[in-house]
Amino acid sequence: MKTKKRPASAPRRGITAPQGFRAAGIHCGIKKPGLLDLALVVSAQSGPIAGVFTNNQVVAAPVIVDRLHLRKGVGRAMLINSGNANACTGAKGLAAAQKTATSLAKQLRVPTEQIFIGSTGIIGRVLPVDRIVKGIPQLLMQLSEHGGLDAATAIMTTDLRPKSIVLQDTIGSRLITIGGMAKGSGMIHPNMATMLGYFTTDASITTHALQRALSLAANESFNCISVDGDTSTNDTVLCLANGMAQNRTITEGTAAFKRFLLLLTEACQTLALAICRDGEGVTKVVRIEVAGATTVTQARQVAQTIATSNLVKTALFGEDANWGRVMAAIGRAGVPLTPSTLTLSFGGVPMVRHGMGLGLEAERRIAKVFRQKEFTIAVGLGQGAQTAHMWTTDLSFDYVRINASYRS
Question: Does 351 fall in a domain?
């Protein structure tokens, strides 16, 4: 009998909801006084860790360090600062990143390779590593099972609100919990979407299975959102498991793995959508569904072309039911198609059939859809059986205002 997935009822929030995890968030002096800017998540015992990172070739120092540590496949703690990206900082930045990991490892008495770090904020400024190192003892003293909200707040930059998730499911007669937190508001685009995401779980799972699950979950979530078409130097998603649920160890290809993958994917998608809803200046979040493609790659290409079209995004903001902009994006996606097989609908209202518009009455109906905060654009290519989806947002006056003055 299938167990229904449900939100966790435990009092612990977000990243600390799984058994054996504690977290804290403090102000260490990177941001303005009073703003949390340093977060720490620690497991009671070491366990498998998985990660996915930015595809940007200009890579921040913490990503370099994490990729190196991930080779061991074992984690104990995650330390993240906001207000400074530690990117484009050369050898000094790399040394600073290594020093933060080494300092925390010494105080936790674990190998440095079990420490994972993250940074987000302004690019090109040297990381004030001494402030971070001085803040570590305070973080350790404040670690708590109820520290998830402070940790999620401490990793924010232009985010309007902290983002966290808790989900549970019974797998192999044991209750498994996944907790998570993420930051992201601007520079959001696939490969990866520009953001930081951290997940914890008390599941017992092999490193290989955890990496496979996270990669698949990220492809169905963080790699399916676009706010502005930019990808960053710091994108990181990590998932740390400590096995304290004492379930039979999950391995790839089993029924338990499928259940765990569904749970992790739901957690990732929830945070990915939270990032879209919290996007800089965002007033609308739109799901784009493409069906009838010859290959999944082609379906994704069409979805991404629509999602990143500034003409489509400004039409969404202006609530202008200009469906022709979507058709133009489909046509320039670089995917072989037959115009006479195309269909297009907005919020379930058909607008195009056989490649042709359905008239003024249909336009009046979709104009009402465009006034909704969230709806779906569905595209049918009529070429095959493959599908793909993405989430996009509108492009508003506030997005320009926020990014024109980001550093000030």
Answer: yes
Q: Are residues 271 and 350 in the same domain?
A: no
Question: Backbone phi, then psi, for 49, in 5-degree steps?
Answer: -135, 145
Q: First and final CA of the chain: distance in angstroms?
A: 56
Encoding tokens for residue 147?
A: 């520290």
Residue of 314, 296, 324 whose CA lies nearest to 385 = 296
Q: Contact 61/93 with Cβ under 8 angstroms?
A: yes
Question: Are the CB atoms for 76 and 41 separated by under 8 Å?
Answer: no
Q: Are 258 and 300 in a shared domain?
A: no
- Residue-wise pLDDT tens digits, 227-242: 544 455 678 899 999 9
Measuring CA to CA, which residue among 374, 388, 392 is closest to residue 314?
Answer: 392
Whether 72 is in a domain gets the answer yes
Q: Which residues belong to the active site?
A: 194
Q: What is the dihedral of CA 26, 27, 30, 33, to 10 degrees?
A: 160
Reported as a single tens digit per residue, the pLDDT across 247-298 is: 999 999 999 999 999 999 999 999 988 887 776 667 888 999 999 999 999 9
Together in a domain, 200 and 345: no
Domain membership flag for residue 1: no
Q: Which two tokens stand for residue 145?
A: 């099972």
**Which pairing describes strands 236-241 and 38-53: parallel, antiparallel, or unpaired?**
antiparallel
What residue numbers bound the domain in which 327 lies? 285-404
Domain count, the chain: 2
Residue that finishes a domain, picked among 277, 305, 326: 277
Q: Using a CB cutoff of 8 Å and minimum separation of 24, what contacts does 317-321 make? A: 317/283, 317/284, 317/394, 317/395, 317/396, 319/367, 319/370, 319/371, 320/370, 321/346, 321/363, 321/366, 321/367, 321/369, 321/370
pTM across the whole model: 0.80
Of 256, 277, 298, which residue constitutes the final position of a domain?
Answer: 277
CATH code, domain with 334 = 3.10.20.340
**How many Å apart are CA 354 and CA 356, to the nearest integer?**
6
Residue 63 burial class via C-beta count within 10 angstroms: exposed 0-12, middle 13-18, buried 19 and up: buried
Residues 148, 154, 157, 160, CA torsion sign: positive
Please, which pLDDT band fits residue 399 given cuts at 50, 70 and 90?
Answer: low
Q: What share of the chain is helix, strand, coil (3-state, %, to 5)?
A: 35, 30, 35
d(CA 94, CA 88): 10
